[in-house]
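Dear Dr. L.,

I hope this message finds you well. Following up on our conversation about the binding site, I have prepared a predicted three-dimensional model of the protein together with fe (ii) ion. For your records, I am including the exact sequence and ligand specification that went into the calculation, followed by the structure tokens. Please feel free to forward this to your student if that is useful.
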Amino acid sequence: MNSSRTPEDLTILPRDLHFDVSTARSGHWLDGDPVGTAVMNTLSLTFPDGERLFMDAVRAYKDQLSGRLEQDAKDFIAQEAIHSREHHLLNRMIDRSKYPVERVEAEIRDKIAFSRSGGPMRMLMATICLEHFTAMLADMFAVHNDMFSKTEPSIKDLWRWHAMEETEHKAVAYDVFLIAAKDWSGFQRWFRRSLAMLLISYNFTRNVAEYASWMLEADGYSPKAAKKAVKEFLWKQPGFFARGWHIWVTWFKPGFHPWDHDNRPLMAEWQSEFDLVAAE
Ligand SMILES: [Fe+2]
Ligand SMILES: [Fe+2]
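The resulting structure of the complex is given below.
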């Protein structure tokens, strides 16, 4: 089966919210932990340019969209634009005289320029893979309650809101892909998206680990200790990437669709909470 299974009654609601992230300026905003902060800052640094790539990838196929998906694509773009704006503000709180923010941003720009150079389909394939990745991280964030326990509530809110909206729109780029690749055989669609996922997951996890290590070195860690600490955070304790593997791996099922994993109940509370804030 290679058709959209996005729930009929799902609404994608761009909530134009603002978060006070000014306390992040003091440094280790994630529970006072330099390692977790280095990883989350790195992730946040990937968002503005990364999400712009996602928006452009979906926008490139807008003429092929109609009805519900056409509207979902607009709401997807609106959500990502607001996410970028808010993460940009968080990124501005990172002390650039201490941390190699410019170096990390330049690396991210290079990787994204490479992805763009492959044309709209390569951009769309990168988008669906990274959207699966962010949906996985969002799900894990909602399931496990062991991070952000000593984090300033308004900073935690930014990440919770982002995770919830990533879940709402997790299938939009994928549904666009199903239309854009409708003339491919089922095997071709499966093969190309599987290959893309392997390549992108390898590069993305490796790059995040590398950039986060650079950030941590600025906290006084030796290069070796920084690499080890970041690796531990990502793959062992708390296993920020590793603990979502059971969601990640579902990608490789022929006929996969992001909503095969219907995690709406998990996000319902956050959704109504931020709906209320947005309505204020
Ligand atoms: Fe986003
Ligand atoms: Fe997204």
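In brief: The first helix runs from residue 34 to 59.

With kind regards,
A. P.
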